[in-house]
Design goal:
249 residues; alpha+beta; Phosphorylase Kinase, domain 1; Aminoglycoside 3'-phosphotransferase, Chain: A, domain 2; 4-stranded antiparallel sheet; two-stranded antiparallel ribbon; 5 helices; 29% helix
Length: 249
């Protein structure tokens, strides 16, 4: 009989155990765990097998190409995930704080983009450009938003037409999603990763990516519109929507 919930952790060994609940957003239950005596991170959610296969394959690809990411730890039978549970390496380090730290984050994010220019879209997801004509994808439902808000968001995304596409991390501007040491920058929490306009990832604290002028304005408006739609309708989404300029009549 298939195991469900956290009983599934036993697929990683009879001594596998949860240690401490971690912050994992609204979509997942995330814990530090101990697997074979070593610390790891486990995430339990309701994503499909196709979705999780996309994410775990991406993390292996990035690891092979020199990016520091939480590589999935296979279950005892070799599966990269089981019944919605993924176990990943624990990444040591501290969050970025200074302008120089965020410049290092930007360099890492740009490396991610270069490694994934031809990567396929995450199953069930839509890019911001897809949403110029589509109304839904994974957590996004534009029909739940006021029509005027959708018009504003789409206008912001339309300005990004023709820009390079790649896998985007989805939330590298959150210090909690970055672990830094003196010699490396690691990106964690890939639950929101998908294929989109690369510059959505480059709106960082301290303008770490060095965006200027019109290009900076386009990226900031498009990123605010994306976060408003993906988080709709909480207070954060309302604040992000307020940053998206009304469309001139």
């Amino acid at each position: 009989m298939a195991k469900t919930g956290w009983e599934t952790l036993r697929q990683w060994g009879a001594d596998a155990e949860r240690v401490e609940r971690l912050t994992g957003g609204s979509s997942n239950d995330v814990w530090s765990v101990r697997i074979g005596g070593r610390l790891a991170v486990a995430r339990l959610g309701k994503r499909s097998d196709a979705d999780l296969a996309w994410e775990t394959e991406l993390l292996h690809h990035l690891d092979r190409n020199g990016l520091h990411v939480p590589v999935p730890i296979p279950a005892a039978d070799g599966r990269p995930f089981v019944d919605g549970l993924v176990v990943m390496q624990y990444m040591e380090g501290s969050p970025p704080e200074t302008e120089g730290d965020w410049e290092r984050v930007a360099a890492t994010v740009r490396h991610l983009h270069e490694l994934t220019r031809a990567w396929p879209q995450r199953p069930g997801w839509r890019s911001s450009l897809d949403l110029l004509v589509q109304t839904s994808g994974t957590r996004i439902d534009l029909t739940a938003m006021p029509a005027e808000a959708v018009t504003r968001c789409r206008a912001a995304w339309a300005r990004m037409r023709g820009r390079p596409m790649s896998v985007v991390h989805g939330n590298p501007n959150n210090p909690g999603n970055v672990r830094m040491t003196a010699d490396r920058v690691a990106l964690i929490d890939w639950d929101e990763a998908h294929v989109d306009v690369s510059e959505l990832d480059l709106v960082l604290p301290h303008n770490g990516a060095g965006l200027v002028g019109v290009e900076r304005d386009k990226a900031e408006q498009a990123a605010a519109a994306w976060e408003a739609t993906v988080c709709w309708k909480d207070d954060y989404a309302e604040r992000r929507l307020a940053e998206v300029r009304p469309v001139a009549q």
